[in-house]
Amino acid sequence: MSDSSTKASLANCAFDQQQEKVLSAYLASCPVGKSGQVMTLTAIKGLMFAIANSPVNVPPDRWMTLALATKTPTFESVQQENDIRHILFNLLDKTRKTISGGFEVLPEECRAEDVYSSEFSRLQEWAMGYGQGSELLMDVWTQVLKHPRVQPMEESWSSCMLLLNVWSRADSLLEKAKKKDGPDVNKMLQAMPAVAREMAVMCHDIRGIWQKAIEKPATVRVTKIGRNDLCPCGSGKKHKKCCENK
């Protein structure tokens, strides 16, 4: 993936298995920095789900800093930097198209039936990435959820967010599940694809509401001018003797 034709194709094609391999290899090669370890590929997919569902556009440098755990990632060459950035953008684009197309939004490798499967560990990674993305956008969501047309969805939104986040810190949940009246973890796991899909649909509706709200022109206030008030044109005359009849 080092020639110019490959560079062009990365910018224009959909995220695929080859790009997934390139991104995975790069992430595995990254050293632990002061900001922490870069995300796994599965965690980045969770992050992208949060970003794609945002009610506002998120600057790329913000989510890239989360994904790569640093504002200044290290690359072997300019070509590699371009490749990785294109791949990340392609992954985000694929996530958005998956959501808008009504497809399953929870990655197949994360659909666990029980806590002993490899899919469960992947789900934990995905939830960790989603959680970090949600935290990044929390100030935005706090404001958006106050909108009168969005408020009726706040409870459902919060419930979905908690269920999607809970697996990144599953130890306490698993301990509760051991108790007699504890939660049925396997049932919760089976519901995850539906929960993720519900969140995607809800966020799509909320984004539409919010975008219309911020695009609405400001109300223009008209102040009535009395006939005996000074004319606003600055002539110093009373309005009735100046511009009232013009």
UniProtKB/TrEMBL annotation:
Taxonomic superkingdom: Bacteria
Pfam families: SEC-C, UPF0149
UniProt cross-references to InterPro entries, sorted A to Z: SEC_C_motif, YgfB-like, YgfB-like_sf
NCBIfam families found in the cross-reference section: ygfB_yecA (TIGR02292)
Stated name of the protein: Preprotein translocase subunit SecA
Source organism of the structure: Endozoicomonas elysicola
